[in-house]
Amino acid sequence: MEKLSIKEIYSATYVLKHIIRPTNLISAPLMRPGCDIYIKPENLQVTGSFKVRGSSYMISQLSDEEKARGVIACSAGNHAQGVALAAKACGIRSIICLPAGAPISKVEATRSYGAEICLVPGVYDDAYQKALELVEENNMPFVHPFDNLQVIAGQGTIGLEILNDLPNADAIIVPVGGGGLISGVAFAAKQINPNIKVYGVQAAGAPSMVDSISSGKIIRLDKVSTLADGIAVKQPGEHTFELCNNYVDEIVTVTEDEICAAILYLLERHKLVAEGAGAVSVAAAMFSQLPLEGKKTVCVVSGGNVDVTIFNRIINRGLQKGGRLCTLSLEISDRPGQLVQVSKLIADLGANVTGVLHERTNTFIDVNSCVLRITMETRDQEHIDKIIQAIKKHHFHIL
Asked: pLDDT tens-digit profile of 281-319?
């Protein structure tokens, strides 16, 4: 197998100098009390994702003859935009295969850069197989989203930038899908500081690299399911698996609710819009998945191309995870004054009722009772616990 070199990553830094946007570190002291944490906001990058680095560097290294044929790529969305932008900058043709379920915003953004779009039923891996077929049919270079050393070198420039901005960094937390980003970052960072810790994070519904590392061989998942579509990859690459084995200290998983809470935190505290894949690093830091105490830590927020059609649901789940939105179902007597009494209990404890549903037809309760479903804004889980105690104290039955 070919080997990655630090020289090539420095070369990529030079090539990308006039293509990418600077993404300076942002201090995040409230992310996890007692920890010194910073954000590397690649969600502010050109095309809204780090992916433009790897794709631009690889395409820049193609021969004139290869560029004349154009390029083919497959992606869940962010790599697609990076390839399309890089191809447009070089004045060459690009064909992009995307999963049919990719967010419309990512599909249209890719199209806006001049790419030809091929939507494929299924997930990323299905789009990947279709792209390989088109490569054979058209004899065009394939820009792999993660398992290519030039792509990995381009992503590795993030590691160099982090240590340039924060030379005494102790740890870097990186989202992991196929592994291209963390492979480049971990390799670059450890060439400069062998003692730095590099941690990876996957969605619990798509743990392909976690399973592969623990098994000692590349594992292909039967299915993946996560709102973090940018890292919903069934199987890591050969290069990325080897590099993660050699340079990554630990890879953990986070839940969907933790991802939503991280997206909400970034939006509220730092005015940053992050997609699910981009926020998993922050989720791991927020929910104590990694040993960060006493470490200067950088969380790479890898992308911000969130699907706006589900953003409201993400925010609501983030609020629920943080104890700031609560829905209770109560069984109450079907007589006047009961709703007033419950509402007063909630109001007296400082919560704000935002929704009420009163149901008389539930067959699982007493015939003289009804179900009251009440949604409220709260401060935190402790606040919710106090409200529940008060409701129980007044002999209302919580379903």
From this structure: 999 999 988 999 999 999 999 999 988 888 889 998 999
Cα dihedral 178, 182, 185, 191 sign: negative
5 tagged catalytic: no
Contact 279, 262 (CB under 8 A): yes
For residue 219 the two structure tokens come to 């594992």
Q: Per residue in 329-388, pLDDT tens? A: 998 888 888 888 898 999 999 999 999 988 877 666 677 788 889 999 999 999 999 999
Annotated catalytic residue within 60, 106, 302, 321: 302
**Cα radius of gyration rounded to whole Å, the chain:** 24
User: DSSP label at 237?
Assistant: -
Residues 393, 388: Cα–Cα separation, whole Å: 9
- Whether 7 is catalytic is no
- Torsion angle of C-alpha atoms 293, 297, 302, 308, degrees rounded to 10: 50
Distance CA 233, CA 225 (A): 10
Q: What is the H or E stretch that residue 156 is in? A: helix 149-165
Q: 76 near 98, Cβ under 8 Å?
A: yes
Q: Which long-range contacts (CB under 8 A, 24 or more apart) does 367-372 make?
A: 368/333, 368/334, 369/331, 369/332, 369/333, 369/334, 370/331, 370/332, 370/333, 370/334, 371/329, 371/330, 371/331, 371/332, 371/399, 372/329, 372/330, 372/331, 372/332, 372/338, 372/339, 372/342
Distance CA 129, CA 74 (A): 9
Mapped onto helix, strand or coil, the DSSP state of residue 141 is coil
Q: Is 317 helix (H, G, I), strand (E, B) or coil?
A: helix
| Pair 230, 303: CB distance under 8 Å | yes
Q: Catalytic residue among 51, 130, 234, 321, which? A: 51
pTM over 0.85: yes
How does strand 352-359 pair with strand 369-377?
A: antiparallel
Backbone conformation region of residue 310, classed left if phi is above 0, alpha if psi is from -120 to 50, else beta:
alpha
